[in-house]
Design goal:
210 residues, mainly beta, 3 helices, 11% helix, 42% strand, globular
Length: 210
């Protein structure tokens, strides 16, 4: 429910340094289809968490192409399923008091970055997908996988893949928690248009001067 908020709150601490554009405003959503989604706003910082949409813009990946068949039924991005299940709640101690009928839309997908950014030695590919950590980094975008139950998941990057990890299974008898596989955060920091650099430090990073 609060996944995007938590990641963005962590990442915004990187948006106060020299050259950061603190006039930026970032909007994210929390909540659920039953109780309603709420917009959260970050102001005063030049940073937010990376999202799956950010990565898709770079790779040119279209989530609507994630369609497949199983048992003669078509599933995939945009697929709807109506069922009666418990669900996460922001106002009832984390879980609904009863199972309720709801319609969930399939919003999960996964793909390999090297299928879209074929030059895996490029700085762009290395920045997004190459990571020595086993679980890569967490991405501030949730995903829903509906069937007889609903799997509430969240995106993360692990080396060459953008994919999802379960957070909660919502069933007709309650909720089952899962450990999210995502690792460290990955902030995007927006810089002022008038910054300049005049030298590099010992590590080769450019020193920002204003």
């Amino acid at each position: 429910m609060y996944y995007e908020q938590e990641l963005n709150e962590i990442c915004k601490i990187y948006g106060y340094g020299k050259g950061a554009n603190t006039s930026k405003t970032f909007v994210y959503k929390i909540g659920d289809v039953v109780e309603g989604e709420i917009e959260g706003i970050i102001t005063g910082s030049g940073a937010r968490s990376i999202t799956a949409e950010d990565i898709n813009k770079i790779t040119k990946y279209d989530p609507s192409t994630y369609i497949f068949e199983s048992g003669g039924t078509t599933y995939g991005y945009g697929y709807e399923h109506t069922h009666t299940i418990y669900h996460p709640s922001m106002v009832l101690g984390g879980i609904s008091e009863t199972a309720r009928e709801r319609t969930d839309v399939y919003t999960g997908y996964n793909y390999r970055g090297s299928e879209y950014l074929t030059d895996t030695s490029s700085a762009l590919y290395q920045m997004i997908f190459s990571d020595d950590e086993e679980w890569g980094y967490a991405v501030a975008t949730r995903a829903v996988y509906p069937s007889y139950r609903t799997e509430f998941s969240a995106f993360y990057v692990a080396k060459d893949e953008l994919k999802t990890s379960w957070l909660v299974d919502a069933l007709d008898g309650g909720l089952e928690d899962h450990e999210h596989a995502g690792g460290p955060v990955r902030p995007i920091v927006y810089l002022k248009s008038n910054i300049q650099t005049n030298a590099q430090d010992a590590s080769g990073a450019w020193i920002i001067s204003e």
